[in-house]
Write a structure and sequence with these properties.
With about 525 residues, the chain is mainly alpha-helical. It folds into four domains: about 20-150, no CATH class; about 155-210, no CATH class; about 225-450, no CATH class; about 455-495. It has 22 helices and seven strands. It has helices at about 20-30, 55-75, 80-85, 95-105, 110-120, 130-140, 145-150, 165-175, 185-190, 200-210, 210-225, 250-270, 275-280, 320-325, 335-345, 370-380, 385-400, 445-450, 455-470, 475-490, 495-505, 505-510, and strands at about 155-160, 160-165, 285, 305-310, 430-435, 435-440, 510. Strand 1 and strand 2 form a beta hairpin. Helix 4 packs parallel to helix 6 (about 130-140) and helix 8 (about 165-175) runs antiparallel to helix 9 (about 185-190). The longest helix has 20 residues, at about 55-75. It starts with 18 loop residues before the first helix and ends with a strand.
Amino acid sequence: MAACAPGVPGTSQIPRLLNRQYSAVVRDLLGLTTLASANNQPPGAGLYADFEGPTNVDAWRLYQEVGDKIATEVMAGPNKSKFITCNPATAGCLTDTIRTFGRKAFRRPLTDAEVARFEKLGQTTPKGTPDEIAQTTLYAFLVSPSFLQIPELATTTENGNIKLSSYEVAARLSFLLWDSIPDDVLRDAADKEQLDSKEKILAQAKRMIAIRDKAAPLIAAYHRKYLDMDNDDSHWWKVSHDSGKFPLYSTAAVSVFQDELDLFFEDVAFGGGSFEDLFLSNVGYVNKDTAAIYDLDPKDFGTELKRVTLDADRRPGFLTRAGFLSSYSHYDATSPILRGAFVTVYMIGVNPGTPDPAFFLMKPPQGDYKTERAYTEALTSQSACTGCHTPFVNPPGFVLEKYDSIGKWQTVDPRSGGDADAGKIDGTATVTFSAGNVKKINTPRELMEEITKTPMAKRMYAEKAVAFATRRVANANDACTVNVLNTKLAEDGFPLLDVFTEMTQADSFRFRVKGN
């Protein structure tokens, strides 16, 4: 964790739209959520994978291909008026469209020179039809650097930093909170120079974050990042399960598990929830494919996810949902090691040490192990393992042994063949939450409650939120913002949504440093 060093960190002046942002912008600009010509996938799904640095040849080719598909579908479909509302053959129609649409697409007014360049698209020989010229104009917008990038080119300085223009502040706000372009209210504020103070920016931020339909995708995207879901090397969503041993499992349920967690985080955030509620809320979202995992009757559900209230002791927070529990298990058994390591490293920030390479080839001594816990204890009692596993990794995983490989509550381990005595689940463990904080934990709820009290857990949440929002790696300048958020998160009931609005109050939100 970096120590706070006041100042504005370096940030790219011309970041490209992330693919999820591209999809959101096309939705808000042109009303398209999917492309029929691309198997009904979101527009951003057809682009090159997100990366930093100069655009490469393949990325540019895909921008052109996707832009052409969008322009074609918009001009031939019901969303044409999102781009042009007049007859393109009428004098002045295209010029007016260039200015009005360009103001939205570029997040600022176009210069006269830019308007003139777009107008030249209708002056070629042979000349296209008015509709062809209109479609070409839309395509030109969609492949323009001012659309694909989020430039920050203001030059006015204040206290040694470059002060962003009102249009640049508006764009930062809209992409921070909506992953998309400013709405009419924010555009009007930018036009009137009403984003020149922290207070005015915060007022807009609070208005914007409260618009659930626009802000919810951002909340889901952040929590996927927070939990490492978008890391190809993580275990999320990569494990299938033995349907013979776990008949409630089906591959169809995997996408439901994903959607369930997105809705859970949305529910917590927009319900006024706090950091603690991430780990303690017993709200669930289930359908007929997942109801039985939560001991609910599938007959009461259809294909759509339905909001339910789950058992508060058995189902506190996202770590007790099937999405996590089934991802951090094996094909035919649970995995105290995978579950425990996730809690230890990603939730409470305890470094258990570097695994001994020999561990991955090790097996436990011969024995008839009736529980996964007994098997794991025998495996990790060997000298290469005890330093990391015994005090740090295994204990949280042992507490979560109350859930089987797909996340259903269990009291008898399947390893025992149904022997209720030999296979009885022992879900107690002594867990290290931090140096000097080692506690005996008896239930999953006790584990979740203690996580919420762990200072490093909140610190990590704040640091990851700042890195996500700014697209920067953790650094000393941003550590000052992290400190503010960490203090806020320590307040009882501090709303999760305020984590994002509070970021707008940092100097680094209104300024950039020269040369970046």
